[in-house]
Amino acid sequence: LNNIALVYFDQLDTAKAAEFQHKALKISEEIKDQAGIANSLNNLGVIYKTRATLKRSLAYFIKALSLYDKLKDKSGIASASSNIGLIYKSENDIENALLYYNRSLKIMEELQNKRAVTFCLSNIAFALFKGGRVAEALKYADRSFNYSKELGSPENILSSSAMLKLIYQKQNKYKEAYEMYELEIKMRDSVNNQETQKAAVKKQMQYEYEKKEAVAEAEHKSELDKQQAVADEKNRKQKIVIGAVIAGLILVLAFAIFVFRSLNITRKQKLLIEIKNRETELQKFEIEEKQKEIIDSITYARRIQRALITSEKYIERSLNKLQKD
Prior knowledge:
mainly alpha
């Protein structure tokens, strides 16, 4: 994310650069990466300075410097200090600008980073010149120029020669000013040529990238289509399985209902049969009871009859007795 932000910044798309740098910052904060947080804050300061939102830029630089101090990151301290100096210079606060520039210069000299030292010296010279301290500015500009020639860097020579041109003009040293102007133009052409070459390389790289991206996109689309086809087929099979399961469940449910109703009817029929059997048994019992009552009545009546009617043997015996008498 940090690198993507730098690429967008290089393409002057500061909005996108800020977007990706904020994403990088958020992740660094989540994982408590203090060095990552400091770098992202410093980068955001640079981005917002380019967008001319100086107060916001200064706030990011100060936060970054505070973290670099805690981490004892000398390179980070120097970078953030230099950036803060640039903001103060832009706001014409020369004293604060010089304070932070000198802090950055001291660290860069300790680290023996000549390229950074050259820029620091040039920045200090410009701040002094802007503050009206031309003689002091010349000393720093000369040192910057000498370092630039040692490095052979067109960008550094361009910066220091432009500064010397302004100082010599202010001192009415027109010959020296003209020489510095010629050198400035020469270095500017050199830088522009380098930029032109870079731009050509970028265009070629962009073309190659877009071509590869188009192929990759086509392959990706083909792969997505295949995955979609597989997903559709899987989805179709899942639907069939789900449909079969639902149909099976419906059949099971219907069979269960049928069985339940059949059992219910059987139970009712059995209950009715039992009721009828009980009624039959009750009727049989009632008939038997009535028959028993009738038989008992008849038996009782015969007993009474026997008790009331004299037996034939008794009569015959009585008649025989009478005959004898």
